[in-house]
Structure formats: structure tokens, C-alpha cells
Amino acid sequence: MKKTSVRLADGRELLYFDARDDAVRDAVDPRPLEAVSTTSEIRLDALLGDAVAIASHRQTRTYHPSADACPLCPSRDGRHSEIPAPDYDVAVFENRFPSLAGDSGRCEVVCFTSDHDASFADLTAERTALVLEAWTDRTAELAGLPQVKQVFCFENRGAEIGVTLGHPHGQIYAYPFTTPRTTLMLRSLAAHAEATGGRNLFDDVIARECAEGRRVVLEGEHWVAFVPYAAHWPYEVHLYPRRRVPDLRALDDAARTEFPQIYLELLRRFDRIFGPGEPPTPYIAAWHQAPFGGLEEFGVDRHDFALHLELFTIRRTSGKLKFLAGSESGMNVFINDVPPEAAAERLREVASE
Q: What are the catalytic residues?
């Protein structure tokens, strides 16, 4: 892999990740861009104790442009985009409309391919491995920023999820705090250790799912994927490396080598859940990594945390979405119409031949 850092016209960083070591990335961004101006502010909710990012400048962000005006496609035929090069493998750049910026963190965009009409599931194993390297590199770099406490790599896929750019891409948020969801996990991790004489909650969950087998979707030598016992979403899969590690940086070579085959198979199964002729399945794919500090207040070490990816869709059946209504949005109590065991069975049925 070769990594090249350049600057866009407004000073934002752009990184090319290339499979070939001899790739040359010297294209210049000629656009007359003004420096990015953000209004990002973190406010604490006094009742819930969590943080909210206020980012009013995002109201003017690019919204559903036509394919020939896509800002994530390469710059070609006289049209200039966020990527000055006429082609690329994987590209990462600072978001022009970030939710988090400066002392409030950082937001980056990850372009998985230059092909506007592709999806992650269409990538080759080699390109998927390169994306994994990009995620790992950005986790390592962002971890070094003094204001960053947690790095979140994720992909939103589909208009139903709220995606405003159709080009296959994901994002990376570098938060200046530990997120509420991770905080809940850390509390559960500490409580389980105290109740069981020091046992690790993540290890016990994986061991139970593998022993029961009913909700296991896919197994490899180094990864296991299952529908969780109390799945919140109609079709939800958690993917864990068998060797517990706190973040992407700690994955060993064997896990990295196997990851593309496992992950691509999961994504392709998601597109087959609802049968032939159905539109692509909207989903969120979210990497959960240990925070970089502050775990002592929970009485756990960051190496007690288990890196994992959570993949889920808001589509509950053909043509119908799972909406977060009163119970979910008002009280954060989810009601799932699809039994996890039935979801797992369906995801096994649609395995690649």
C-alpha cells in the first residue's frame, strides 16, 4: 500500500491509498474555494449526561447531486471534484461540511472506489483489504490528536438511511468524548466482570452465540458473525474477530487477510435478504473501537473492550421500513418485529453458492 497526502484548494487534507507502490498523485485542485468555516459546538445535555454536536453550517451541504455533478467522483473532462486525480483506488479527505471540527474533533470522508455506480459489496477482496488499511491508518492518525477520545468508522448506505451522496463512501468521526453507546458497553463490561469474578463480557457473549449456534450467520477461522440475542433491528449482524482486540490497529495479519471474504459475503447476503428483484438493502455498517482514555472511571482497561462491526438495516420486509416511533425515539426501548433466530436463518439461506 502507498499513502500520499496532498492539500485541496481550501487547505483540507486529502489522502490517496493506492494498491500500487508506484502510483503518482500530483494532480492539483484548481477550484476557487474559500477556507472552510464551521460552527461546530459540543453541548452537554444536563438531564441525560450525553453530548450533542450543534453544526448549523451543515444545512448548506451538498444534497443529492446528479451523477455528473458528484463531488466524490474523480476530476475528469474539465469537471473538478473533491478528488483532483482522474482516477483513484481509495481516497480520504476532510469533510467540507463537518459535524465535528477543531477542538470538537474531526470528520473525514472515505471513498471506497472511483466507480460511482458500484457499492461496497461490488469491491474485490484486494480493494476491501485496502479500505481496511485506510480505516486502520486513520484510526492511528486521529488517535494522536489531543482532542480525540474515540474514532468511529462507518458507512451509511441508501437513501432510506439518509445518504445524500450516491457514490459509494463512508465516514470517520473523531469524537472529543466517549460516545453514549460505548459508555453503556463499558458499564456493562465492568458490571459483568464484577458479577462473574473477572470474566470478560464480550468473550462470554461470543462463546454463548457459538455454543448455541442458532443465531450464527457466518464463521471463519479468525472472524465470527451472528445476530445478537436481543437484536434491535430487523436484520442485524455483529462481526467479531475471534481474538479480542481493542481497535483496528491491533488486528493481526491473519485476521486482516480473512476479513475481505467474510465482510463481502455478509454485504452480499444483505442484498439478497428480501429476494430477487428487490432494490439494494439500505444499511449502516459501524465499527466499534475502544476509546483512547477515560476507561479508569469504569474500572476496566481498554484491552477489555472488543473491536467489532455492527451491520444492520432499517428495512423490515419488502417495501417496508422500521421507523423509530414513540417507544424507540421517546424512551429508547426498541421493538423488533423480526425474531433474531428467524433473521439468522434467512441470512444463512441466502449464502453465496
A: 169
pLDDT on residue 285: 98
Which tens digit of pLDDT belongs to each residue from 31-78?
999 888 787 899 999 999 999 999 887 776 776 788 889 999 999 989
* Residue 225 in grid coordinates: 458473525
What 3 state SS string does the chain have? CEEEEEECCCCCEEEEEECCCCCCCCCCCCCCCCCCCCCCEEEECCCCCCEEEECHHHHHCCCCCCHHHCCCCECECCECCCECCCCCCEEEEECCCCCCCHHHCEEEEEECCCCCCCCHHHCCHHHHHHHHHHHHHHHHHHHCCCCCCEEEEEEEECHHHCCCCCCCEEEEEEECCCCHHHHHHHHHHHHHHHHHCCCCHHHHHHHHHHHHCCCEEEECCCEEEECCCCCCCCEEEEEEECCCCCCHHHCCHHHHHHHHHHHHHHHHHHCCCCCCCCCCCCEEEEEECCCCCCHHHHCCCHHHCCCEEEEEECEEECCEECCCCHHHHHHCCCCCCCCHHHHHHHHHHCCCC
Q: What is the pLDDT of residues 255-295, one digit of tens each?
A: 999 999 999 999 999 999 999 999 999 999 999 999 998 89
pLDDT at 34: 85
With a cut of 50, which residues of the chain have pLDDT below it? none
